[in-house]
Every structure is written in structure tokens, then in C-alpha cells.
Design a protein that fits this description.
mainly alpha
Length: 61
């Protein structure tokens, strides 16, 4: 099963966004900005199904 570069790059980009949103959520929580914390946590949760969809699409190729 050969992976395409496009799928791997997309998964790397999703991972980068996941790290970014996690860092922003921790920073917002530290400064007691709870609205931003919830927004970044929700964005983090949205990225997980996106990564699963990308992975499944690449698995079929």
C-alpha cells in the first residue's frame, strides 16, 4: 500500500494545527480567557475527524 505525498502532507498539516490549537488553548486557560479556551478545544476536536477521513481516503488508494 503506497501512500501519496498529498495525503501525508495533509496529515502533517492537521497535526501542526492540532499542536497549534492545543498550545493556544493552554495559553488562554493560563490567562483565564475561558471563551478562547473553549473555542480552541472545539477546533481541536473538529480536527480529529478530519484526520480520520484523510487517513481513510489514503488507505483506499
Amino acid at each position: 500500500m503506497k501512500r501519496s505525498y498529498y495525503g501525508v502532507l495533509c496529515l502533517c498539516f492537521v497535526l501542526l494545527l492540532n499542536i497549534f490549537f492545543t498550545q493556544k488553548a493552554i495559553h488562554a486557560f493560563y490567562y483565564q480567557n475561558y471563551d478562547a479556551t473553549i473555542i480552541f478545544a472545539i477546533l481541536n476536536l473538529v480536527l480529529f475527524p478530519a484526520a480520520v477521513i484523510i487517513y481513510q481516503r489514503e488507505k483506499k488508494v
